[in-house]
Amino acid sequence: MLLLILLLLVIIPLAISYAAIDRGGVPWYQARRDPSGLAPDPETTPEAVIQVYAARAAAWRGAFGVHTWISVKRSGAKRFTRYEVIGWGVNEHTNAVRRDRTGPDNYWFGNRPDLLLDRRGGAEIDALIDRVEAAVASYPYPYFYRIWPGPNSNSFTAHVARAVPELGLALPANALGKDYLPNGALVAAAPSGSGFQLSLFGALGLLVAAEEGVEINLLGFTVGLDPKDLALKLPGIGRLGWPSAAAVEPAPRPGDAG
Known about the structure:
There is one protein chain. By secondary structure, this protein is of the alpha+beta class. The chain has helices at about 1-20, 125-135, 155-165, and strands spanning about 50-55, 65-75, 80-85, 95-100, 115-120, 185-190, 195-200, 205-210, 215-220, 220-225, 230-235, 240. The protein has one domain. The protein is globular.
């Protein structure tokens, strides 16, 4: 029975995801990395902005999950700052937490990113950026990276989300590594801050939250159901169902109607 469950809920979805990879006809390291146009122009956007992105991982890794990152711009700033964790070079003692390796919304080795969260405003968003940057600085694995089950780029983004629950960030089901809890913790808040999760070193666990729904972690891969948005979550494939727009709606600004 266990083998049948793994076959239906993990192995088959991953096989479908692998078959669907767009290889683009060029080596992954030559694939496009130019701006996607999803980030606002800082020259014409005086307000503060927090955005979170996810794009299919490079090469064969894209069959298993996405790479996530955070881009922020303070009020009046003329440029974004991008924060992410990257594994390349960590074995040579390079810091895994990278700043401004590329633009805020650029293609990730040929894969166009999806905008997961967009918060804009004044002093209240600047205050959230202070907390985001404090969480970046407190990430407990600046010189360690492990693609499975973590800590990796998605473990980093989940760490920031838990530290700033006001963001309400629900990470994609195929953000492999998001359930790896720092320092061997077994219990933590869900990344969205709307529930809780149990996790055994990122390889086995359960998450129940208003934003994410119910997620079961099997060998690091997510199987779940989101009743709020009528969506099914499968390994590799990610989300099947109605798209959730709640996370990417800009925060209300003073004077907005309603």
